[in-house]
Amino acid sequence: LKMLSRQGLLVLCLLASTQAFYLPGVAPRAFKDGEAVNMKVQTLVSTETPLQFDYYQLPFCSPKKVQDLPENLGEALVGEKAHTSAFLATTKKNEYCKTLCRKSYTPQQMEEFQDFAILDYRVNMRLDNLPVAEMHLFAYDDKPKDTIEIYNLGYPLGRKLEEPGAKTDQYVLNNHLRFQILYHPVESEDGGAETDGNYIVGFRVYPYSIKHTYRGKWNSTGGAYTRLSTCVQPPTGRFTQHDPLIIDAQDGQEVVWTYDIEWVRSNVKWASRWDVYLQMNEIQDDKVHWFSIINSLVIVVFLTGIVGIILTRVLHKEIQRYNEVALSEEERQEMNREMREETGWKLVYGDVFRPPPHAALLSVYAGTGMQLLIMSILTLTFGAFGFLSPANRGALLSSILFFFVLMGVPAGYAAARFCKLVKEPNHFKTTLLTATVFPGVCFAMFFILNMVVWARQSSTAVPFGTLVVLMLLWFGVSLPLIFFGAYLGFKREVIEVPCITNPIPRQIPPQPWYLSMWSTTIVGGLLPFGCVFVEMLFILSSIWQHRFYYMFGFLFMVFLILVVTCAEITIVLTYLNLCAEDYRWWWRSFFTAGSTAIYMFSYAIYHFLTRVHSPAGIDFASICVYFGYMFIISYAMFVMTGYIGFVSTFMFIKKIYGSIKVD
Asked: What is the pTM of this model?
């Protein structure tokens, strides 16, 4: 006991001496008074089109040497490139009407600015890993006085000029930016303020369109403030009466780019600085998620009850058979009558484990489905514990890729086990297909989409070096792991099944229309999709409307409900088919649960038509990007949910056929 108590005290001392750890890239940094602060520019994005472009693809002001900042694999795949900028700021020093540069633009360049303004493109920047955002006040209709801050990522490049009676649409260019940097002083442990620096806890922007004027000739080497007559002197952030800068796409024009820097002390702590960003654009009430989960749980309870009744009746009949000696004559007759009513599935015991057509391909998808399932569980688990915070840029996509690659061992193992079960002789072919079919389809689609966006000069286009990294992960890591897993699987004995397959297939009687392949497939995917469509709306909005998604706890619960629903609906429909003496359950179970992806893709079409497409017209590249990536996501969902339905049905059939006695 003394030894245990000493060890316990040692552990407590170690825990007390440890300090909080931070993920790479998200550790707090304190800025000294007067220290230079670097603003980084990123991409131009729009909610009207999925195409995004690099900041310097438009002729903005730039420093003498633009440096590309390092990025991880996830950032490279989504095109979130960051560069140094010409914006200069000094900690806790307010500066107004600073001139960034003066440029003369050709008509073609001004027309390009106008095209981006028409499509409502927004400029993304960041400071100390915080994205720049516009701040708006939001209030519910029933509580107009209770306002909260809502952030909208980036700032609009331009906007439509609302003038009554105008014959043509005119657009103005936002050439003046007022940056408001919120800071919180570093505090000591006893709560007193120190001079160790300041944490940046907010990064706001207020865009303006100002047609600047200046007296005399432009002196590029003069002061930053005195040359502009539109700014009140000395500069205080106010302007003289001015006109907006209307884009002239006919003759071109001169543009003077300016900006302000304001430092505002805030009570927000560094650990809470992301809270306001996670409520962008709309109020995401937790009640919506809870109502969705409760609705899904009702479906799960209903399906669980049906499966429980089936298993209970099967096991009840088995117990009665063992106790048949103790039954009376009337009880025996009643039992025989009930057995005759449910003997359909028992009549096909000699064919229920007959290998299906294209059995090798089914084994391949079983392995890939297990790979995707474990990858999803690990990703959601890390997300629920906070490792995939929006502050850690690119972490989500990087985690998905690495988990998928590393799960090659269970993929190869599952494919090998089912390959031996269906008596597929070519083990090498099955293993190779497991490593190439699903990744090959996704990579081919990704490569085609990359060519499309590259032709449009979009920043979404992945550079050649990143493609090489993906190929190395595929063939250098994933493929060897799958072969290793297959080696372990083929070394194991064949999965034992309770029934021996007859040499001659049993004839299948005519089936009613509601038990046809198409009917069960349509019904099988509807309930699982009904469990996840609310959460899918938030996910699609985060992808295509450029919002942060952070509710991994809700998503993990919804994912578990999806797994249970896919398994149970497939078991119920397969049992009905077996009762109708149709033993072709292998592919049917896979397609029944996998049809959830069909509803997901259909909902993606609806989302595109109602929220994503541009009112100025839908171009070919936008359609390709949106539906190409949604095809990849739906294809992965099809394989994963199909595997869930197939494996759960296989275990169910082993259970019920193991409970009957066959001569």
From this structure: 0.83
